[in-house]
Amino acid sequence: MTEHLPQAEWTQRASLAKLVEALGAEDLRWVGGCVRDTLLGYPANDIDAATRHLPATVIDRCRSAGIRTVPTGIDHGTVTAILEDGPVEITTLRRDVATDGRRATIAFSEDWRDDAARRDFTINALYAHPETLAIDDYFGGLDDLAAHRVRFIGDAATRIREDHLRILRYFRFATRFGDDWDAEASRACSELAPTLKGLSRERVGWELQNLLALPDPAATVDRMRELGVLQEVLPESGRREVAQLARLVDAERSAAIAPAAMRRMAALLPPIVPVAETVAARLRLSRSQRSRLTCIARREPQDAAHPQGLAYMVGRECAVDRLLIGGADPAPIIDWEAPAFPLKGGEIVARGVARGPEVARMLQCIEKRWVAERFPSRERVEQLLDEELAAR
């Protein structure tokens, strides 16, 4: 008996009905994550479609229907329709002609099964008719979804040789949707782990962040270490750091603090700034991500002695990260607002100190003492200034 996609909010959108009318219900299928997640009862964040139409035809038909499109990946058959409820990626059916582990040479197809066969996992190769919501399942994805099993389509090693990034994608999808490790997939991931070195560092960094942002990736990261995969993408991380990640996940849960990929990546690194900088450069992290990673790398055991002072000096976000990784309670700074330092350089100049580096040095010294004394009153700050002037 044919299974059908449950009625969901997104399946009833007028903007999608307009798109279906423009491209034709028999030439269009919802595919991938939106189908998988709806079957699991999860919200569908991104809507993807597959079509028999060539990209130029998709653009022409959408234009005639008053739908704006953007050729976001037209060389690979993808056009994005800009709808009022959000963008929809529409990709022409494809089959692989040649692959080298990093990119594929494709040919367009009119066969839904051809398109399904080039996808990575069975649970991602489910197609739903846009009107009847009947599901086409070519490789047992429905059974795997029901069994909480993540399985490659066909031979796992062959699929990984087509795209080496599938190693990391396997661990991410198995963490999110699986209850156990597939033996064939694990063996293939372990044997082909060295191929990850040939991938773009940005792609590796992005997959690592997606994995680390999941609710609890600690057991998965440990599994990656056992299979020799972690050593290929994050060689700075050893058994101690993997155990530290597990403790961090528990600490986040206890403190009711949302996961953060950079915090968790920092837990997987030793607290050495040059190491954090090297990893950030290698994975092509953004400037803000690099700053956060290096700030956390400066963590010290005494951070927990004065949480508010730490938050004042390094910012609340980094302070929370450092406290959590260090096993300290971040509660004292969660809703804390840092006070303003009640002294200006002009006041020091007014006391007879010439403008220049000496004023900045005195300001920093007094501010450091003010923080150490847990933000005393203005009167105490003036006393600190007197003491610095006398010492000078």
Question: What helical percentage do the residues reach?
Answer: 40-55%
CATH architecture of the domain at 1-147: 2-Layer Sandwich
Q: Could you give a short account of the major beta sheet? A: 7 strands, mixed
Question: Hey, roughly how much beta strand do the residues contain?
Answer: 5-15%
Oligomeric state of the chains in view: single chain
Number of strands: 9
Give the CATH level 1 class of the domain at 1-147: Alpha Beta
Overall spatial form: elongated
Which residues sit in consecutive blocks of at least 5 with pLDDT less than 50?
none
> Number of helical runs?
21
Which structural class fits the helix and strand makeup? Answer: alpha+beta
Question: How far do the termini sit from each other?
Answer: 88 Å
The CATH superfamily of the domain at 1-147 appears as Beta Polymerase, domain 2
What is the ordering of alpha helices and beta strands? HEHEHEEEEEHEEHHHHHHHHHHHHHHHHH
